[in-house]
Design goal:
Chain lengths: 311, 356, 340
């Protein structure tokens, strides 16, 4: 147990500089966006010099950037992501509204990835160099070569417009609205999971411990499932976890193509309207989500691979 | 070479006293690997018999087909690329090839067990040793988790792993090399197999540990009256434990004899070269004399005797005609060499003593 | 050691993921790279590692297929006139007309026909000419961006792996920061900063991609350098008193370069996709620039009525990415010692 504690503590410590660096970058880039923040605060109306001065003081805009940063991060750690003057709303409120949509989209995509990617990868590894394997290789290569937004439009055209199975976009149809976007979002990772599983499984099938398992007289299903696959899955699970972490930060392109008002699309729109508070607030939330999940993955990784715990 | 298929160790006159029941008969076993580069003839026409309580040592340098022979007996040759051909591999008279996969699995692990060269890579890194040993009971005996763990602890004690109860939940990487090999042995012996194949069980271990493992294997064999196939390229080990020796070169058997006969008077030039290359066997600080040249490609074997490019006794006949295993005057073993008589007479008496 | 120094299968998955995250968000497709690129062992470069690889590559149909694809699109980038020449319509992508040339009446866009092979867009421009001219930006940014990020990544990863110590620590932390900062968001934010007033051109996009795109290559190269450093011939050179620089450039570098090279090849495809994605999101190139991503963005509302507006640039884009992807794939197979 103490090993696990030590391991966790080390991971956490290593995360601190990453956290500060990444959030500072976001903060800096976000507030350096073009457009006069004070004018924005005043609602884009012309304002008197004294109002202006008061706004500057109120929002501490006269302080050096790093001081503003620490002030802001102090708030963030208390759950306050700032206020969008344009939308007259707390950014944390907006986050609470849009994040669940991104979670649904990403969650569904990950589920598709796991079911289809894993089975394709396992089949390919077991039938290495046979037709099925070639099929997986070829189709994953194409899946990777087609940019997501092209794929998204193709899917819209075929499944929403021509076949009229799915809504073309938006979230009016509840969970059903997320299915097509989730497939599009999942395609790339699915291809990757399939290939990664194929590689790691066919490698672990050649490991000595698989020979041992066979020599123990275990049934083929157990040799493959309990011994080879269990090891092969370690990198795959890590990948899927990190993928989830990234997608939760906003599946920007898919959300844009399918008009899903999630985290990513909201950020992009806010950049368009020069709503700095939203851009910075949501981006920092995305970074935090990413870091937290990757920490969880790291810990989970130690559960999956006992060797890591005692390095 | 096919016609020697029926020659078995049992035919060798000087064979040891403690012959028990016949456990394993391998007749005319060949294994090919179909690779991109060509067909690798890994094993060619290998035949032998193993009795209860007998230790058969298969020796030969790396790549000579020892492990593949073992895999073929276990029925775990990777296929593709491997193709196994045998006249018969019989366990207690039952030809294993006739069994269904399900019945074959009952033999594998329960009746014929195997341990491997590198215990670290041969144990699954993500399961505790207790779980891996216990798996034998879970799968083959339908034991409960708890029973399996208890059985694992008992076995770990049998192979003398200290504090077995405390360590049963530990993972392979937490053990030393010697302890890992003990775990492998415990796992292999868990269901009391009649035959144990040990494929270079000590090669990956420290010298100090090697003797302990060999001793453990020896005493367990005696206890259970097992047939032991000991694969090794360490002739020192062979001298102390083997009853019978089978020497392999380039996939084929080039000499087989009772261990004592072999040490006293081997008849193949390759055996002679090998014996000379073992300083520890001969004594103090003698220089190691390696056999010149490299083993041949198993894809393009030289015509005639596969050893002919490296052989000091080579004659024209060796380059065209492949020698078969045969007995020669004044030697109790079998040897596959056209010039075995010359090799014997060239030897000055007492070239290689026994290792003890 | 830093967390980025972990070895084993996990690091390849992580690299893979990272790589995806770099160029990609969910956008573009080179996330395989790391398993493709980062996965294989560094072996001592026998005299003929690369010439052997070439011999092997030459025999593969897939290589020639990818070479032809890349050749076509590179030529298209250099000399679009060659491709527009046989087209009966105008060869100038900016010579557009909303009027019917015969009747002089205003007309909506034209569907693909023998006159306008790919139809015309909503501004009446010949779409074939536009799609052909779109290759230039993609190729420039793809290759230029890769060169830039390789340059930065090789220096960072090489220094990090070879010298270790605090240099390694600092660089590894920077890499971590960039990983935690999603590439698309980074690109969006910084492209908005860069040239907010003057408008963005290909160079700005290239610059941002290079500056934010290097960490994965750096990690891959660092790992390879660490491996190469351990090899006997490096020890030998050190024992013979060779200087650090000599060891780095004569012994370590040539042996560690293979995975980075493969990554870069596949990366070209990834960056081409990234540029298109950024332009599509409205933060990359801006009109009047001609880019496949922009064409697709500007045709979004026509998806139901005129899908060819998205299909043609999408097809060209995918084929270009595919070309580089396959090339990397084939080269990886050839350089991977396990395949020999
Ligand atoms: N799975 C395989 N595929 C191809 N060739 C193999 C395979 N396994 C073993 N071989 C070849 O068979 C020959 C004999 O190998 P092996 O029995 O392992 O030798 P050793 O006597 O050292 O145990 C070697 O040349 C080896 O390359
Ligand atoms: Mg072997």
């Amino acid at each position: 147990m103490p090993d696990v504690v030590r391991y966790t503590a080390r991971r956490l410590l290593l995360m601190i500089p990453t956290f500060i660096g990444a959030t500072f970058l976001v903060f800096f880039a976000g507030f350096a966006l073009p457009g006069d923040p004070i004018a924005a605060l005043g609602g884009e109306r012309s304002m008197s010099e004294s109002t202006r001065q008061q706004l500057i003081e109120r929002y501490h805009l006269d302080e050096p950037v790093w001081q503003q940063y620490f002030r802001y991060m102090g708030d963030v750690l208390q759950g306050d992501l700032g206020v969008s003057i344009l939308r007259r709303r707390e950014v944390s409120d907006i986050f609470k509204e849009v994040f669940p949509r991104t979670v649904k989209l990403a969650g569904l995509a990950i589920a598709i990835e796991i079911v289809m990617g894993l089975s394709a990868g396992v089949l390919a590894a077991l039938k290495k160099d046979k037709f099925l394997d070639q099929l997986v290789l070829v189709s994953t290569t194409f899946a990777v070569a087609i940019p997501v937004f092209v794929l998204g439009f193709a899917a819209q055209n075929i499944f929403a417009i021509r076949l009229d199975i799915f809504p073309i976009g938006g979230i009016q149809d509840g969970a059903w609205s997320y299915v097509l976007p989730a497939f599009v979002l999942a395609t790339l990772s699915l291809a990757y999971v399939a290939r990664l599983t194929r590689t790691t499984l066919s490698e672990s099938l050649n490991e000595d411990y698989v020979q041992t398992a066979k020599a123990k007289g275990l049934p083929q299903s157990r040799v493959v499932g309990r011994h080879a696959l269990r090891n092969a899955l370690i990198p795959v699970v890590t990948f899927i976890g990190l993928d989830l972490a990234g997608l939760l930060g906003g599946a920007i392109i898919t959300e844009t193509v399918f008009n899903i008002p999630g985290v990513g699309r909201t950020i992009v729109q806010a950049i368009g309207t020069r709503d700095h508070a939203i851009v910075v607030g949501l981006s920092i939330a995305a970074v935090i989500v990413y870091l937290v999940i990757s920490l969880v993955i790291d810990l989970f990784y130690a559960v999956l691979d006992p060797r890591i715990r005692y390095e | 070479m096919e016609e020697v298929g029926s020659v078995t160790v049992a035919d060798i006159p000087s064979h040891q006293q403690k012959v028990g029941e016949v456990l394993l008969e391998v007749e005319d076993l060949s294994v090919d690997f179909k690779t991109d580069a060509g067909v690798v003839k890994a094993v060619q026409s290998v035949s032998f018999t193993l009795h209860a309580g007998e230790t058969l040592a298969i020796i030969g340098e790396s790549g000579s087909g020892k492990s593949v022979t073992a895999q073929a007996i276990m029925g775990i040759v990777p296929s593709p690329p491997g193709v196994v051909n045998a006249h018969a591999i019989r366990f207690r008279g039952q030809n294993l090839a006739d069994l269904t996969e399900k019945d074959r699995r009952k033999v594998r692990g329960q009746e014929i067990a195997m341990i491997f060269q590198d215990p670290l890579t041969s144990l699954n890194p993500v399961y505790s040793v207790g779980k891996q040993i216990g798996e034998m009971f879970r799968v083959h005996r339908g034991a409960s988790r708890k029973e399996a763990t208890e059985a694992a602890i008992e076995l770990m004690e049998q192979v003398r792993i200290p504090e077995a109860r405390l360590r049963v939940g530990d993972y392979p990487h937490q053990f030393s090399g010697g302890m890992r090999q003990r775990v492998m042995i415990a796992m292999a012996l868990s269901l009391d197999p009649a035959v144990l194949i040990a494929d270079e069980p000590t090669t990956a271990l420290d010298v100090t540990v090697q003797a302990q493992i060999m001793e453990l294997l020896g005493s367990l064999q005696e206890e259970h009256n097992m047939g032991l196939i000991l694969i090794t390229h360490d002739l020192g080990v062979v001298a102390s434990v083997a009853d019978t020796v089978q020497l392999m070169y380039a996939g084929g058997v080039v000499e087989k004899a009772g261990a004592d006969d072999f040490y006293e008077a081997h008849a193949h030039p390759y055996a002679e070269g090998l014996m000379r290359s073992i300083p520890t066997l001969i004594g103090e600080d003698e220089r190691l004399i390696p056999i010149e040249g490299a083993p041949p490609s198993l894809i393009r074997l030289p015509p005639g005797c596969p050893f002919n490019p490296r052989c000091p006794y080579v004659t024209d006949r060796c380059r065209t005609e492949k020698p078969l295993l045969r007995s020669i005057a004044g030697y109790a073993g079998l040897v596959a060499c056209h010039n075995a008589e010359d090799v014997r007479s060239a030897k000055v008496g007492g070239g290689g003593g026994s290792g003890e | 050691m830093s967390d980025s120094g972990r070895e084993g299968p996990e690091s390849s998955a992580e690299e893979a993921y990272r790589e995806e995250h770099r160029f990609v968000d969910e956008a573009v497709g080179s996330k395989m790279t790391a398993v493709l690129a980062g996965d294989f062992e560094v072996v001592e470069k026998e005299a003929g590692l690369f010439s052997d690889a070439w011999k092997q590559v030459r025999r593969r149909k897939l290589f020639w297929f990818s070479a032809v694809l890349i050749g076509i699109f590179t030529l298209m980038a250099i000399a679009p006139a060659l491709f527009t020449l046989p087209s009966p319509a105008t060869h100038d992508p900016r010579e557009c007309s909303l009027r019917n040339p015969e009747t002089g009446e205003f007309q909506d866009l034209l569907q693909p026909s023998s006159e306008h092979w790919f139809g015309t867009d909503i501004q009446g421009c010949d779409y074939y000419a536009r799609v052909v001219h779109g290759a230039r930006v993609s190729i420039i940014i793809g290759i230029g961006g890769t060169l830039l990020l390789s340059f930065i990544g090789l220096i960072a990863g090489g220094t990090s792996g070879f010298y270790g110590g605090w240099t390694d620590n600092v660089i590894s932390r920077i890499v971590d920061v960039l990983y935690a900062f999603p590439f698309i968001i980074a690109a969006i934010l910084f492209l908005n900063l860069v040239a907010a007033e003057t408008g963005r051109n290909a160079w700005h996009v290239l610059l941002v991609i290079g500056v934010f795109g290097w960490p994965t290559l750096s990690r891959i190269f660092r790992g390879a350098v660490l491996q190469a450093k351990e090899k006997e011939y490096v020890e030998a050179a050190r024992a013979l008193g060779a200087s650090n620089n000599r060891i780095l450039f004569r012994h370590v570098f040539p042996n560690a370069i293979a995975p980075a090279l493969v990554f870069a090849m596949i990366g070209v495809g990834g960056i081409i996709g990234a540029e298109a994605a950024l332009s599509f999101l409205g933060v990359g190139l801006q009109l009047p620039a001609i880019s496949w991503g922009l064409m697709i963005a500007n045709s979004q509302d026509r998806i139901a009525t005129d899908p060819f507006l998205i299909f043609f640039p999408g097809l060209f884009l995918s084929l270009t990415v595919l070309g580089f992807l396959l090339l990397g794939d084939v080269v990886r197979d050839a350089l991977d010692p396990r395949n020999r």
